[in-house]
């Protein structure tokens, strides 16, 4: 009987330990479920962040293209301005030469008129 009582005590101890392990396993299972939920939430946030990152990369690319187009437009405008300036300088040079030629023609006509007056007066 004493041996049975001893075995019964051992069985009760083992049963208590089994219940304790069962509760621990349940608690670990709950922690694991919570961790899995956190992982799923983090994966969802990472997926959303990747989408935002792709959008940002696209926006940066668009801005770089716009900046390049603006730079080319500015260069074209500067070239057009330089071409116009060169054309105006050339036109000014032609106008100055034409004015000088007209002055020369006027002076020559004045001299010829003076010469004719002298002939007429003589």
Distance between the termini: 177 Å
**What is the helix tally?**
1
Counting helices, strands and paired strands, the structural category is: mainly alpha
Unreliable stretches, pLDDT < 50, 5 or more residues? Answer: none
Q: Specify Rg, calculated over alpha carbons.
A: 52 Å
Give the mean pLDDT.
96
Number of strands: 0
Percent of residues in beta strands? under 5%
What general form does the structure show?
rod-shaped
Sketch the major β-sheet: none
Q: Roughly how much helix do the residues carry, as a percent range?
A: over 70%
> What string gives the helices and strands in order?
H
Protein architecture, described:
This protein is mostly helical. 98% of the residues lie in helices and 0% in strands. The chain is built from one helix and no strands. The longest helix has 120 residues. It is rod-shaped.
Question: How does the SSE layout of this entry go?
Answer:
Blueprint: H1 2-121
List keywords for this structure.
single chain; 122 residues; mainly alpha; 1 helix; 98% helix
Give a short summary of the structure:
This protein is mostly helical and 122 residues long. It is built from 1 helix and no strands. Residues 103-122 are annotated as: Disordered.
């Amino acid at each position: 009987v004493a041996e049975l009582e001893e075995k019964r005590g051992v069985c009760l101890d083992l049963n208590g330990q089994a219940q304790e392990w069962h509760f621990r396993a349940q608690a670990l299972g709950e922690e694991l479920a919570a961790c899995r939920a956190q992982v799923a939430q983090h994966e969802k946030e990472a997926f959303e962040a990747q989408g935002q990152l792709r959008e940002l990369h696209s926006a940066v690319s668009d801005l770089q293209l716009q900046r390049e187009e603006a730079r080319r437009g500015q260069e074209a405008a500067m070239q057009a301005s330089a071409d116009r300036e060169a054309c105006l300088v050339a036109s000014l040079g032609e106008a100055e030469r034409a004015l000088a030629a007209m002055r020369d023609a006027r002076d020559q006509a004045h001299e010829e008129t003076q010469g004719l007056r002298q002939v007429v007066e003589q």
